[in-house]
Amino acid sequence: MVFPRVSIIILNWNGWRDTIECLESVYRITYPNYDVVVVDNGSQDDSVQKIKEYAEGKVRVNSKFFEYNTENKPIKVFEVSEDDAREGRFNRPLYEKYDVDRRMILIKNKDNYGFAGGNNIGIKFALSVLNPEYILLLNNDTVVDPKFLDELVKVAESDEKIGIVGPKIYYYDYKGRSDVIWFDGGRIHWWWLWAYSSSKDSERDTHPRNVEWITGAALMMNTKYFKTLNSKYFFGNEDVELGIKANRKGLRVICVPSSKVWHKVGVSRKKAKVNIRALEGYFNFVRVNFSSLTYAYQVVINTLLIPVRFILNRDLNMLYYLLQKFKQRQ
């Protein structure tokens, strides 16, 4: 049986504790042909050192989802500078002497390039050096089921017109529960308070189904069709735009309920602080992918409704930005 190669890209920024729990769950998966590429996005803490210490077996991971595994430590870490990653300089023959669960690539970016920009460095490196059939973007604040990748690949390989697949994602901890659905596929809304939303269907929906987009928290794309994210978005929207592009190419976007991931919802967004760059990215996303009329509608409706949240959060800079955006439409 042939197992297509999957390069798993995990982006870290000042979040090594979440990252090592994610890594420990990934190194327990049953799928036999994968790479782990951790991209440190210019962290200002000791993330790089702590991730290496984890790989050496010096940092124990505690999780309610699994028992810590001592048998696959140490994990060989191949450190790659941003410049070498961009140029595709890497000792692949040495790397491939190690088993899949005993090796890790750690790319050290010079700065924080945002979600798309940081992931793109990892994606381009993987495509130039590892030649995977699939790229899997995985948030560092997730924990995966041991068979999650088997299920994704099985569905992805079932139809050559499938461009993107993603798992059913549960809250890591929702009022003490880990069986509450956070994401089960996304929808696009041409006229709504927000241009897109996620589905949270019941457990009765167990079959793979067509959706309009997959969250970047856990997204696997076929490298025949997709090779990059739109780095104009600092945080958010790039995954939705990828779904729109797939649909316009006549490709299928599939949610796979039998593939399960748990997500610490809000961890990444809290660090990003939903800042002006993220909001501006949303408006740029609507402007590029929707009609002028829809764009004007989004600016107006968000100018009226979103400020309430910003006022409650005492974020007057965001309120000022929205007011300026509204004036530009007059």
Automatic annotation (TrEMBL):
<dbReference type="Pfam" id="PF13632">
    <property type="entry name" value="Glyco_trans_2_3"/>
</dbReference>
<dbReference type="GO" id="GO:0016757">
    <property type="term" value="F:glycosyltransferase activity"/>
</dbReference>
<dbReference type="InterPro" id="IPR029044">
    <property type="entry name" value="Nucleotide-diphossugar_trans"/>
</dbReference>
<feature type="transmembrane region" description="Helical">
    <location>
        <begin position="295"/>
        <end position="312"/>
    </location>
</feature>
<keyword id="KW-0328">Glycosyltransferase</keyword>
<feature type="domain" description="Glycosyltransferase 2-like">
    <location>
        <begin position="134"/>
        <end position="265"/>
    </location>
</feature>
<keyword id="KW-1133">Transmembrane helix</keyword>
<keyword id="KW-0472">Membrane</keyword>
<protein>
    <submittedName>
        <fullName>Glycosyl transferase family 2</fullName>
    </submittedName>
</protein>
<comment type="similarity">
    <text>Belongs to the glycosyltransferase 2 family.</text>
</comment>
<dbReference type="InterPro" id="IPR001173">
    <property type="entry name" value="Glyco_trans_2-like"/>
</dbReference>
<dbReference type="Pfam" id="PF00535">
    <property type="entry name" value="Glycos_transf_2"/>
</dbReference>
<keyword id="KW-0808">Transferase</keyword>
<keyword id="KW-0812">Transmembrane</keyword>
<feature type="domain" description="Glycosyltransferase 2-like">
    <location>
        <begin position="7"/>
        <end position="62"/>
    </location>
</feature>
